[in-house]
């Protein structure tokens, strides 16, 4: 009976065990499958939808299966609790054939092991799932951030692209609306600057997704690349639009250089000749002219400086006024070099057309406007500077000047140390080895002398022939075939006659704000502003620049007395030194000063009618240590000329007979006839009326025939120089006579009470702005005499 019951229980347990065994096997297979699926899901999806799908699907499957696994494990636990654990094993310790009860016991052990394995695998799967879930949540958060950044950037780019799509073709825009369109595009370019940061943010977020953890999907990668491409295309489109509008604003259609039309006001209009050279129309007078109206006013105002008796100072003061009008006193040398480099102006012998000049000047003045917004009017400054450069280097209005000429003009009037200008200009004509030959130096000096030539002052600086200056420089260098920068600087420090106007310009600029605690002994101005002239003959005798330049003297003081010039306030050491010089000069006679003339510049040997205008032998150059005595030379000459000029005093003008008036007219006609004859002879020989850079001949010819040709060419150049100098002298003399005749007519026609003259001839403004030195008629017999007697004294102070 007991055996039957055991058998029945055993059969029932076996059936239940089979069901549980199959259930656990299925669960183990499912757990292994999910473990494999979990491993296969790595790496995490590269876009937001994929990650969200991975996250939701796996979590849902685990949640669905959890009750099944828990129920199966609970059933197994209950089943195992009802089974004996070790009873049969203890009854039969030795191996033998198993009975049904024993086999049931072994099945129970197997079922327990399966249940433990299911529980272990389930816990492991939950652990791996939790870790995977953490990675998915982190990836989900990062992908959401990337997606939001991309969506925001996409929206901004779409708005910008809509604005870009509204642009009309530049060719369809009205000329008058170009500036408005340009401003709108510039404003919008500033508004989309923050987009650059957003693009950078998107790129940074995308770079954080790196294999093997997370790899962006091809879709996300293409979206990021597309956003970057659209941003670059937008930037290029805006820059190109601005460039096109700029070009159209300056060059578009028949009204090219349109942005410069605002440089003139009614009734004036800016027009363009076929070769792009601007000219100006006055609709009131129905006339045209090459000069800008403001430039004409400036030239007329320069005539006020014609009463300055010394040409170097007169020229420098005119250039200083011109420099300020062109705002070049605000331009640093580095800024000028940057603009030249930006426009790739490196080939100095290449020509520049009008548009190239305007573009480079616009770059220069745009930068100056940013630094000095209240002082710089870009269209006006560009037009005025262009006008001046053409007046200096393109008087025939061909529409082209050389790059070297452009650099020389701009750098000469910019704000920089004097020696820095010398170094830069020398570098432009030096070869790649840093040396310069005669021909290259001639090009530089030729372009430089055109600046005072345009003001009508070239005769005072040796004329337009620069060959004597070149010869002087190379003689200073012991006749070397080439010179280096150091020798050139040493020569320029001596202030050669053809270039002396440039250092004087710097001293004039330095003296503008100088305040000297001294009183002028003539006009009683105190303190003295500008140049101060201290006598080295009398104690405590000072003259201001106005009195000195006009030739006024106080009682007891002679113009041949030595004086010293200061462009900055004096120091105690200078005061002591001048005091010692005054003591020395107290014991010196007039004969000593006559035997020791002083000159404030390096004269050059120039041929005029076979004679020397100025030679170093007759006018030795002083060392820089003796600069305080240089004024003696021209002071004595000036007194003589002043005495001669006094013959045209107020009383003398009243007593001029009509016979003298007729003799002046006859002299004027004779001079005009001689001038015409020389001019015809000059033109007949085929000589160019305008100066040009000379071509220096080789030192050693290869054959006697070459030597003859070289000698003949040299004679022709000398003859040309003599003719030009003679013609210049006749022109100057003729202008002075015309000025005298004009004044005499006024005196003869006006009532006696109104005929007030101060002893010097009044000069009327002219195109060349040439000073009329009628109070010094003897100074115009030769150019050299005029130069030495009107150049004035130059100190060694430099503009810093």
Could you explain how this protein is built, in words?
- Strand 2 (278-282) and strand 3 (287-289) form a beta hairpin.
- Mean pLDDT is 73; it is low at 86-96, 607-659, 685-702 and 751-800.
- Helix 9 (311-325) packs across helix 18, helix 14 packs across helix 15 and helix 14 crosses helix 17 (485-493).
- The protein has helices at residues 2-40, 48-82, 87-91, 100-165, 178-191, 193-207, 218-251, 293-302, 311-325, 333-342, 354-371, 378-393, 403-412, 418-429, 438-454, 467-476, 485-493, 501-511, 545-550, 572-586, 590-595, 631-645, 650-654, 658-684, 704-749, 783-790, and strands at residues 268-272, 278-282, 287-289, 351-353, 400-402, 515-516, 528-529, 532-535, 542-544, 563-566, 607-608, 611-612.
- The strands form five sheets. It has a three-stranded antiparallel sheet with strand order 1-2-3, with no helix packed on it.
- The chain is 59% helix and 5% strand.
- The chain is elongated and about 155 Å long.
- The longest helix has 66 residues, at 100-165.
- Among the domains are: 2-151, Methane Monooxygenase Hydroxylase, Chain G, domain 1, CATH 1.20.58.60; 318-509, Orthogonal Bundle (Recoverin, domain 1), CATH 1.10.238.10.
- It has 26 helices and twelve strands.
- It has 800 residues and is mainly alpha-helical.
- It is found in: Cell membrane, Sarcolemma; Postsynaptic cell membrane.
- GO terms for molecular function: zinc ion binding.
- Residues 515-571 form the ZZ-type domain.
């Amino acid at each position: 009976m007991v055996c039957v019951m055991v058998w029945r229980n055993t059969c029932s347990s076996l059936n239940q065990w089979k069901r549980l065994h199959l259930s656990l096997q299925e669960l183990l297979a499912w757990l292994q499958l999910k473990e494999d699926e979990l491993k296969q899901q790595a790496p995490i999806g590269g876009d937001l939808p994929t990650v969200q799908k991975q996250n939701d699907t796996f979590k849902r499957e685990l949640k669905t299966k959890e009750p099944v696994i828990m129920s199966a494990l609970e059933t197994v636990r209950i089943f195992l609790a009802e089974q004996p654990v070790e009873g049969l094993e203890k009854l039969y310790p030795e191996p033998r054939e198993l009975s049904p009860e024993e086999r049931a016991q072994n099945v129970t052990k197997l079922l327990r092991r399966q249940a433990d394995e299911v529980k272990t695998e389930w816990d492991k799967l939950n652990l791996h799932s939790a870790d995977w879930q953490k990675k998915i949540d982190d990836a989900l958060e990062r992908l959401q951030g990337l997606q939001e950044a991309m969506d925001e950037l996409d929206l901004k780019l779409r708005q910008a692209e809509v604005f870009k799509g509204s642009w009309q073709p530049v060719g369809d825009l009205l000329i008058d609306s170009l500036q408005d369109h340009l401003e709108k595009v510039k404003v919008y370019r500033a508004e989309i600057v923050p987009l650059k940061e957003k693009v950078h943010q998107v790129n940074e977020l995308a770079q954080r997704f790196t294999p093997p953890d997370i790899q962006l999907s091809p879709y996300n990668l293409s979206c990021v690349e597309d956003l970057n491409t659209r941003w670059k295309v937008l930037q290029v489109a805006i820059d190109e639009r601005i460039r096109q509008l700029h070009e159209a604003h300056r060059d578009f259609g028949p009204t090219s250089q349109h942005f410069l039309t605002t440089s003139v006001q009614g009734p004036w209009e800016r027009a363009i000749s076929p070769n792009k050279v601007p000219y100006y129309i006055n609709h009131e007078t129905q006339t045209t002219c090459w000069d800008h109206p403001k430039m004409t006013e400036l030239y007329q105002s320069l005539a006020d400086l014609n009463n300055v008796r010394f040409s170097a100072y007169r020229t420098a003061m005119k250039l200083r006024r011109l420099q300020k009008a062109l705002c070049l006193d605000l331009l640093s040398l580095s800024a000028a070099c940057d603009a030249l480099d930006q426009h790739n102006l490196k080939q100095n012998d290449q020509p520049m057309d009008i548009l190239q000049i305007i573009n480079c000047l616009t770059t220069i003045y745009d930068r100056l406007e940013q630094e000095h917004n209240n002082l710089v009017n870009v269209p006006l400054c560009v037009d005025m500077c262009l006008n001046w450069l053409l007046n200096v280097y393109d008087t025939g209005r061909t529409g082209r000047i050389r790059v070297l000429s452009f650099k020389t003009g701009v750098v000469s009037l910019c704000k920089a140390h004097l020696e820095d200008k010398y170094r830069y200009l020398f570098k432009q004509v030096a070869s790649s080895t840093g040396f310069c030959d005669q021909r290259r130096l001639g090009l530089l000096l030729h372009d430089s002398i055109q600046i005072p030539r345009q003001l009508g002052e070239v005769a005072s600086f040796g004329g337009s022939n620069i060959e004597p200056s070149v010869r002087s420089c190379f003689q200073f260098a012991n006749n070397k075939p080439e010179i280096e920068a150091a020798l050139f600087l040493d020569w320029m420090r001596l202030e050669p006659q053809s270039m002396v106007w440039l250092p004087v310009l710097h001293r004039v600029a330095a003296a503008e704000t100088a305040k000297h605690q001294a009183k002028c002994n003539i006009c009683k101005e105190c303190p003295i502003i500008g140049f101060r002239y201290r006598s080295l003959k009398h104690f405590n005798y000072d003259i201001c620049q106005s009195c000195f330049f006009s030739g006024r003297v106080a009682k007891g003081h002679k113009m041949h007395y030595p004086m010293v010039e200061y462009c900055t306030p004096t120091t105690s050491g200078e005061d002591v030194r001048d005091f010692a010089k005054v003591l020395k000069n107290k014991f010196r006679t007039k004969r000593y000063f006559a035997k020791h003339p002083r000159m404030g510049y390096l004269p050059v040997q120039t041929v005029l009618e076979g004679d020397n205008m100025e030679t170093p032998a007759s006018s030795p150059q002083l060392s820089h240590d003796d600069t305080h005595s240089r004024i003696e030379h021209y002071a004595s000459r000036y007194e003589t000329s002043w005495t001669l000029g006094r013959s045209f005093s107020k009383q003398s003008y009243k007593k001029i007979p009509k016979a003298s008036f007729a003799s002046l007219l006859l002299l004027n006609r004779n001079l005009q006839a001689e001038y015409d004859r020389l001019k015809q002879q000059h033109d007949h020989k085929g000589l160019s009326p305008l100066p040009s850079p000379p071509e220096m001949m080789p030192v050693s010819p290869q054959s006697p025939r070459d030597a003859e040709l070289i000698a003949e060419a040299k004679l022709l150049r000398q003859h040309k120089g003599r003719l030009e100098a003679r013609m210049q002298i006749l022109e100057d003399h003729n202008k002075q006579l015309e000025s005298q005749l004009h004044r005499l007519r006024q005196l003869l026609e006006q009532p006696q009470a109104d005929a007030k003259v101060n002893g010097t001839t009044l000069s009327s403004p002219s195109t060349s702005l040439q000073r009329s030195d009628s109070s010094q008629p003897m100074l115009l017999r030769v150019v050299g005499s005029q130069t030495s007697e009107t150049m004035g004294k130059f100190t060694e102070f430099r503009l810093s």
